[in-house]
């Protein structure tokens, strides 16, 4: 009887500890992503280091722009995927019509914002462009796809050029 009491007490203590750990893990706030300012030089430096790049192109005066990152990068999964995939995160801010941001939009045929541009350093002239409001699933799929492009020499399973 005494052994049963100890066993039951030990199991209860272990359950309480497990619940406390699970709760504390969920309550620990994730560090936000660090977005550096976009310049053509910062993009080229990332390519020189063989780093993939995620650029958020937006403006504070665009209603969609105000929610664009919060919509696509809202969960711990998205933040962790971006952080641990080694993506360099850059923000091209068109709020004051920054010439570098405007040129980036023109170079990629963008006439509306917001957009995400996901660059693979092996294909610097062919970023994946996600326009307007993008879901988290769309962004994560583009990141996964783009990270696999180098392994497939830029070809999809049928041997044709990649298109997302």
Describe this structure in words.
The chain has six helices and five strands; from the N terminus they run αβαβααβαββα. The chain has helices spanning 2-27, 40-48, 63-72, 76-84, 99-107, 136-149; strands at residues 36-37, 53-58, 88-93, 115-119, 128-131. Strands 1-3-2-4-5 form a five-stranded mixed sheet, with helices on both faces.
Summarize the topology.
Elements (H helix, E strand, L loop, with lengths): L1 H26 L8 E2 L2 H9 L4 E6 L4 H10 L3 H9 L3 E6 L5 H9 L7 E5 L8 E4 L4 H14 L15
Parallel strand pairs: 1-3, 2-3
Antiparallel strand pairs: 2-4, 4-5
| Backbone shape | elongated
Task: State the oligomer.
Answer: single chain
Note the main sheet: 5 strands, mixed
Number of strands: 5
Strand order of the largest sheet: 1-3-2-4-5
Give the helix proportion (percent range). 40-55%
**Helix and strand composition category:** alpha/beta
What is the terminal-to-terminal distance? 66 Å
Low-confidence stretches: 157-164
Mean pLDDT comes to: 81
Order of helices and strands: HEHEHHEHEEH
What are the defining features of this structure?
164 residues, alpha/beta, 47% helix, disordered C terminus
């Amino acid at each position: 009887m005494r052994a049963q009491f100890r066993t039951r007490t030990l199991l209860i203590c272990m359950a309480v500890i497990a619940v406390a750990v699970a709760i504390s893990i969920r309550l620990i706030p994730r560090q936000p992503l660090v977005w550096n300012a976009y310049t053509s030089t910062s993009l080229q430096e990332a390519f020189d280091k063989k780093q993939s790049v995620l650029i958020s192109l937006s403006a504070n005066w665009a209603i969609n722009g105000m929610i664009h990152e919060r919509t696509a990068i809202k969960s711990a999964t998205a933040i962790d995927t971006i952080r641990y995939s080694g993506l360099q995160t850059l923000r091209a801010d068109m709020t004051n019509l920054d010439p570098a941001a405007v040129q980036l939009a023109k170079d990629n045929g963008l006439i509306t914002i917001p957009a995400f541009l996901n660059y693979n350093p092996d294909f610097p002239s062919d970023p994946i462009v996600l326009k307007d409001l993008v879901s988290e699933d769309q962004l994560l799929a583009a990141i996964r796809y783009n990270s696999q492009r180098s392994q497939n020499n830029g070809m999809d399973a049928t041997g044709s050029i990649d298109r997302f």
